[in-house]
Amino acid sequence: MEFDRRVQIWVDRLKDGHKETGFGSGYLVAPCLVLTAAHVLDDLDPDSKDGVRVGLPNVGEQQFSASLRWQRKDGVVDAALVEIREGSGWQVPQSLGDLLTRPPQRYGLLIGNRPHQVTATGFPRMQKDTKDGRRLDEQLSGSIAPGTGALAGRYEISGTDPAPGTGAAAGTRWAGMSGAAVLADDGFGGDLLCGVVRRDRRADGGTRLTATAAASLLADDVFRTLLTEHTGWEPVLEPVEPAVLLTPAAVDRNLRSPAALLRADAEAIAFHGRTTELADLQAWCENTPPAIQIRVLTGPGGQGKTRLARRLTDTLGRHGWATGHLGSDLTDDPALDGTAPDFTTLNTALPLLLVIDYAETRPRLLRRLLTHLHRSRHRVRVLLLARSDGQWRTGSLQATPAVRDLLEEAPLTPLTPLIPTTQPPKDRHDAFHQAAHDLARLLPLIPTVPAHDWTSLAATLRPPADLHEHRYDNVLTLQMTALTALLQHGPRPVDTAPGAPPERTLLKHEDRFWEASAQAPAHRLDLPAPTLGAAVAVAALCGAGTKDEALHVLTTLPGLPAHQIPSTAAWLASLYPPDGDRYWGSLQPDRIAEYHASHALTEDTITLPGLLGAAASGQQAQLITVLARAAIAHYNAGRPTDSDHVLHTLDNALDNASLAQQALEAATDALPSLSHITGPLALRLTTALVHAHQQHAAGNPDVHEPDLAASLS
User: What percent of the chain clears pLDDT 70, i.e. is strictly above it?
Assistant: First the structure.
């Protein structure tokens, strides 16, 4: 809970001809927008000039004039939004000072059937100071049992902590608590706003307060529109209990470099189109038989799979579904502490939609998850996102027969271009201008980008003359071209060869971020630019779950002195922060990282055989997968020579590398099936895997012959 968002509300009331002052609690959900209970504003005096006033008790006693923007009071909802008026001297609390890079508030939905801990802080009558009459704060810790009050569409908060009396003969000690926000922990120290306090049920023992559920608020179009207008972020419901397993619906925009603007989860560019695809996916979720179903959405990197899936989960979340995206830090590799993810927190009677991105890179985790979800007696939909189909879906991998059948029978849907060449050229021109406009709004937030009137520049940009070509079928290519056009027409362009792909131009701008970060006082890395770029390529190729894994692969960099390896590892860890508890993240979006890694091979700044030798099994698998994807991307972009070079270099490195069996299995599973580009690589890895199983089966046939049979099938 952010204490600087708790507010007190005073209301001038006119009831039965008598004037009085009402009081309630509230919580800031935007810099100037307060969420409270609707009945706090009952009988508002229409003739009062400042009929609603708001105060921040931790700042002072000043009251700021406010106006009612939205109010709804019925059997399900008792809530209101109050806006603090301009010119009142209001100072925005520190926790709400940055709306461009951080979502102001996340919203939660309890999906299970077990009591869950929550907190609420307000200003009830029992905390009224007997000397000066001030309302002091009360933080209630309690629990919500989802099965209590559900038929009435509300939450009920039960608490057992002792509460002081009021000394009043009538009324409730909790008077004034109405409007307090009900918050649940997300497992990482953040808050999910689950509801707003309504009334005291005056329990015979302990405490029982009712609350309007956040789900009911976000289902209201006017409420949701007001929040979006005041914050720039569309509010989205997130399941509370499994929050540690899921990616936040709205993540902090880590806008430290230009490439960060193109991350799917940054949502820097407004979503548009995909009406047909959304309707099809929504019908699959809602109108097909309720038993668990799986669907696979495939497409090259940057085609828009993740943005489409996020739109789907956001939409269904407003219609009574529990939705979420499985966290990218959950992989086939076991956790550092050896514990498996607790999938029981996904148990729910609500319809459930779970999205799994990068499904081809974590097939074993996928099967463990499906084994659990298959037990559900309720509607479950699992949407898998992958570059392509392959062994990751059709292979047995020791799955149960039911899960194996689910995966093998799952329909595949290739995601077509957002704006195909068959549409009028104006559609791509409009998309280019929209991307440039949206990117220009956020460019000033990037520290390595010089100050400039980017919005005016965006209005004057002309789309490239070849925008009609097929390479712009990929929406990321179009958006990347808009970003590089802005940067190249700005005050600090970079030198690029004519016809250079946008990835190359963007990476030259990214170079400046690497150099500035390396020279910062926190790192003081006195390394040449090529060595910094090679280190970033190693992180993109291998990743690192632990510091030791990072140190091992960095020892293979020719231009990196041994005494600077630890500081370089730490620099990379801070450069692109990882998800979860992994040590390294990576340059994003993936397509940029893959291009950069493959370009490092061309420049010979990394030694691939040595890197494979120093890498752990998971790193070996990631390296092969990244380079295979890079080869496919080069080929699809009309650069077959670059594609051949990547595959030839990898093939030569594999001649002298000793790959762990786990790496062979993971890389083989992730490669696309029936691809003429990576077919020889897939054959080589499969052959090596068969040989490994043959050796194991010769020593212990009872244990290893099933694996051998599976590898031969």
Answer: 96
- Summarize pLDDT for 180-225 with one digit per residue, the tens: 999 999 988 899 999 999 999 998 888 999 999 999 999 999 999 9
80 beta partners: 36, 71
Q: Decide: residue 635, CB within 10 A, 0-12 exposed, 13-18 middle, 19+ buried.
A: buried
Ramachandran area for residue 301 (φ above 0: left; ψ -120 to 50: alpha; else beta): beta
| pLDDT tens by residue, 667-703 | 999 998 778 999 999 999 999 898 887 876 766 675 5
Question: Which candidate, 116, 104, 99, 311, places its Cα nearest to that of 194?
Answer: 116
Residue 642 CA: distances (Å) to CA of 308, 370, 500, 638: 30, 39, 13, 9
Instruction: Return the amino acid letter for 578.
Output: P
CA 24 – CA 37 distance, rounded (Å): 8
CA–CA separation, 380 and 503 (whole Å)? 39
| Domains, the chain | 3-96 (2.40.10.10), 106-218 (2.40.10.10), 274-414 (3.40.50.300), 519-712 (no CATH)
Residue 77 has pLDDT above 70, yes or no: yes
257 by DSSP, 3-state: which?
A: coil
For 365-385, what is the mean pLDDT?
96
Q: Which residues contact 330 (CB under 8 A, 6 or more apart)?
A: 245, 341, 362, 365, 580
Strands (E), 16-63: 18-30, 33-36, 52-55
Q: Are 238 and 248 in contact (CB under 8 A)?
A: yes
Closest to 264 in 3D by CA, of 229, 330, 308, 231: 308
Tokens 């040590």 found at: 583
> CB 73: neighbour CB atoms within 10 A?
16
Tens of pLDDT, residue by residue over 308-365, are: 999 999 999 989 999 999 998 888 877 655 678 999 999 999 999 999 999 999 999 9
591 near 301, Cβ under 8 Å? yes
Residue 28's DSSP bridge partners are 34
| Bridge partners (DSSP) listed for residue 356 | 384
> Residue 165: what pLDDT?
67
Give the C-alpha separation, 30 to 432, whole Å: 31
Please state the pTM of the whole predicted model: 0.91
Q: Which residues of 133-162 are buried (b: 16+ CB within 10 A; e: fewer)?
A: eebebbebebebbbebbeeeebbbbbbeee
Tokens in use for 389?
């189909």
Helical pair 502-518 and 590-602, crossing angle rounded to 10 deg: 90
Q: Of 395, 424, 401, whose CA–CA distance to 671 is shortest?
A: 395
Four-CA torsion 165, 171, 177, 182, nearest 10 degrees: 90
